Amino acid sequence: MLTLLAQASPTPVSRTAMTYHIWGDDPPETDALKSHIYSLRQALDKPFDTPMLTTITNLGYQLAAENE
């Protein structure tokens, strides 16, 4: 997930694209993506004043450098 977000940065990655990147044609029926995003946020955002991983409404998730 982090690699996909970093390669796309600062362009948002859609939930659909992220789900396919992780699980391919066999996505889970649960909110597993939300759980993984939550865990990634806990690791990434902890040392920073502003979040590096943001949710872009109706688009997906965006990874941005602190100075952007």
UniProtKB/TrEMBL annotation:
Swiss-Prot/TrEMBL GO biological process terms: phosphorelay signal transduction system; regulation of DNA-templated transcription
Q: CDD domains, alphabetically?
A: trans_reg_C (cd00383)
Q: Which residues form the signal peptide?
A: none
The reply to whether Transmembrane helix figures as a keyword in the UniProt entry is: no
Alphabetized UniProt keyword annotations: DNA-binding
Where on the tree of life does the source sit, at the highest rank?
Answer: Bacteria
In terms of Pfam families, this protein maps to:
Trans_reg_C
Q: Which residues form the OmpR/PhoB-type domain?
A: 1-65
Coiled coil region boundaries: none
Location of the DNA-binding region in this protein: 1-65
Any one Gene Ontology molecular-function term assigned to this protein's record: DNA binding
Q: Which PROSITE patterns does the UniProt entry name for this protein?
A: OMPR_PHOB
Q: Which Gene3D superfamilies match?
A: Winged helix-like DNA-binding domain superfamily/Winged helix DNA-binding domain (1.10.10.10)
Q: What's the protein name?
A: Helix-turn-helix domain-containing protein
What organism does the UniProt record list as the source?
Microbulbifer okhotskensis
